[in-house]
Specification:
The complex is a heterodimer. Chain A is α/β, with parallel strands linked by helices. Chain A contains 9 helices and 12 strands. Chain A has a 6-stranded mixed sheet, with helices on both faces. Chain A has a 4-stranded antiparallel sheet with strand order 2-1-4-5, covered by helices on one side. In chain A, strands 11-12 form a two-stranded antiparallel ribbon. Chain A is globular. Chain B is mainly α. Helices cover about 75% and strands about 0% of the residues of chain B. In chain B, helix 3 runs antiparallel to helix 11, helix 4 runs antiparallel to helix 5 and helix 8 packs antiparallel against helix 11. Chain B is globular and about 65 Å long. The chains are: A alpha/beta, B mainly alpha. Chains A and B meet through helix 2, strand 6, helix 3 and helix 4 of A and helix 9 and helix 10 of B.
Chain lengths: ~250, ~350
């Protein structure tokens, strides 16, 4: 569903992403991990077509540069790391913005747009909040609304940049369970970046470890979350123990 | 979707209210003056002016002439200028995601002012003082306005991103001060145009009959069409450029288009009416508080209520101290400065 070959991104004179290859099959969940500055968010932005890059990115078999902006927005939806919360905007109006790629210039929301949004609000248990102001909601509720906006785009590919960073562990689990359920129900393909390695490993089908703009390891959680790899690329001493659902990564004071 | 309110947008009752406000401003603005005319007769006379409508207002030919040659052009100019300033203010607030953005605070008006001053000063030098504004005035104002907003943007941003709302306003203040200094210098060099420029600076709605209306009309039409066509884009831009791009928009292109159109509108308004402050802040903010934060309602309502507000303000300016006239810029600033402080307090609290 997502194919990335030889991706390079330069920002000014520095190379942020340096030759990344990445494949995500339809319906698969792949999580990119890596230390700060490794280029995780940049890879996600390039896949979403949000910044110029060299190399090849294809979505559903089509090179991303061959898609118009609107076509791209119907194919891939992004939840950025800390979305702007527009003051005073109601939940319903915010989620409706997700229908933008279906609304003609100068047009307005059609009945099918409203129906699509209602369906998403129901699926995410947000119907009771639809007339609430987004800026009055809690962090967990907001994250659900951000997700609803992305789902309303009707895209088959979901890019999530640090979807749980601002949440406590209860809400982290809630949001990721929700994403996993939606992925199964709607056949979504998920590419995410995450910092919490244990939780990342529990939800991802495969993981990619990025360091210095390159892929240094890729595979299942057990293959990527090893004491040796993490020590080398995060400069941290960790113990990796079997948690039943997957590896538990525990930092140890040296 | 049967229960609860529908999506954001222009509500019918607000649209009706805006049209009513314009009608009230039109009739009151034409009826009141040194020779008071009965509002009902004025309404009839105005309807009579519409093509295909024949109503006998019972007014004398002289009174009809007062209406069509003196008061109506002035009221229409007030409606147009008020609509342009309010719409431009709303557009700047959306583009810069800054509630305090206003044609004046961004230096746009000062830039337009410098352009106009230059044209008036050079015309005085060449001895061609016809009393009417030269056709080149809106163009000079536009060049000044765009240069000023570009300068403010460059000073207030780094790497294409605005750092904070405060830096943008501060750089607007700096640009305004610089342009005002250039204007003062120019005036000192052309002392003979001081009086003309000064009376223009205070803000006034022209007494040049339909000439000024016709001068500003094409620019106003372009501004209205472009800004109003971008109303949904402005709502999408409120969620941030990256999201707007991921939703299929071209944020930078929308932004430049809106800045150009708003600056053109500001320049056209400034060129015929001088520096009338605060309309671009008072009107959109009141509408934001009352009718909701969506630009799909703020933009069209700014046109209606902005026009009505300025036409009524002009009525106050020319009647409270009759037969003398208070410059309209003084009246709007008198109302606007306290209101601006209120908005500042609110945005500081939240």
């Amino acid at each position: 569903m997502i194919g990335v070959r030889g991706l390079r991104v330069r920002l000014g004179s520095s190379v942020i992403v340096d030759g990344v290859d990445l494949d995500v099959a339809a319906g698969e969940w792949v999580t990119i991990i890596g230390p700060n500055g490794a280029g995780k968010s940049t890879v996600l932005r390039a896949v979403g077509g949000l910044l110029p890059f060299s190399g090849a990115v294809s979505l559903g078999g089509t090179p991303v540069e061959r898609l118009t902006r609107r076509e791209r927005a119907r194919t891939v939806a992004t939840v950025v790391q800390s979305p702007v919360v527009p003051p005073g905007m109601l939940v319903l109006d915010y989620v409706l913005l997700g229908r933008t790629p279906y609304i003609a210039p100068l047009g307005r929301e059609s009945a099918s747009d409203l129906a699509a949004v209602q369906e998403v609000l129901t699926a995410l248990d947000l119907v009771g909040l639809r007339t609430r102001r987004l800026d009055t909601l809690s962090g967990g509720e907001r994250q659900r609304v951000f997700l609803a906006r992305a789902l309303a785009q009707g895209a088959r590919i979901l890019l999530l940049d640090e979807p749980t960073t601002a949440l406590d562990i209860g809400h982290q689990q809630e949001v990721l369970e929700l994403v996993d359920r939606l992925r199964a129900e709607r056949g979504l393909t998920v590419l995410a970046t995450m910092h919490d390695l244990t939780i990342a490993g529990e939800y991802a089908d495969r993981m990619v470890l990025l360091a210095g703009g390159r892929v240094v390891a890729a595979g299942t959680a057990w293959e990527v979350l090893t004491e040796d790899l993490l020590a080398r690329h995060y400069r941290v001493r960790v113990k990796v123990i079997d948690g039943g659902q997957g590896p538990l990564v525990v930092p140890v004071r040296s | 979707m049967s229960d609860g309110p529908g999506p954001a947008g222009l509500r019918a009752r607000w649209l009706v209210g805006g049209v009513l406000a314009v009608v009230v401003a039109l009739v009151a603005g034409v009826a009141f003056g040194p020779v008071p005319l009965p509002p009902a007769d004025v309404a009839a006379a105005l309807l009579d002016l519409l093509p295909g409508v024949r109503i006998d207002s019972g007014l004398s030919d002289q009174e009809i002439a007062i209406i069509t040659e003196l008061r109506l052009p002035r009221v229409v100019l007030g409606l147009l200028v008020g609509a342009l300033l309010a719409l431009a203010g709303a557009a700047y607030q959306g583009v810069f995601r800054n509630p305090l953005a206003d044609p004046h605070l961004l230096g746009v008006a000062a830039g337009a002012g410098l352009g106009v001053t230059a044209v008036i000063a050079f015309r005085s030098t060449s001895g061609d003082a016809t009393g009417e504004l030269p056709i080149g005035v809106p163009l000079a104002a536009f060049v000044g306005a765009v240069a000023a907003v570009a300068l403010t943007w460059l000073l207030g941003s780094a790497g294409g991103r605005v750092r904070t709302p405060a830096t943008l306003i501060l750089s607007g203040v700096a640009v305004s001060a610089f342009l005002a200094a250039a204007q003062t210098f120019l005036l000192q060099r052309h002392i003979e145009s001081l009086r003309e420029v000064y009376s223009w600076l205070l803000g006034r709605l022209g007494t040049a009959g339909w000439h000024d209306v016709l001068l500003v009309l094409p620019y106003a039409a372009v501004t209205f069409v472009i800004v109003l066509s971008q109303r949904r884009e402005l709502d999408v831009l409120t969620v941030g450029d990256e999201e707007a791009a991921s939703l299929g928009l071209h944020p930078q292109r929308s932004r430049y288009l809106l800045i150009a159109a708003a600056s053109l509108g500001t320049a056209a308004a400034v060129s015929v009416s001088g520096l009338i402050g605060f309309v671009g802040i008072i009107v959109p903010h009141t509408l934001r508080l009352l009718a909701g934060p969506s630009y799909r309602s703020i933009l069209p309502l700014s046109v209606l209520f902005g026009g009505a507000f300025l036409a009524l303000t002009d009525l106050v300016a020319r009647t409270v101290a009759s037969p003398a006239e208070i410059p309209i810029g003084v009246v709007t600033a008198f109302l606007g400065a306290p209101f601006f402080a209120l908005v500042l307090r609110r945005s500081a609290v939240s």
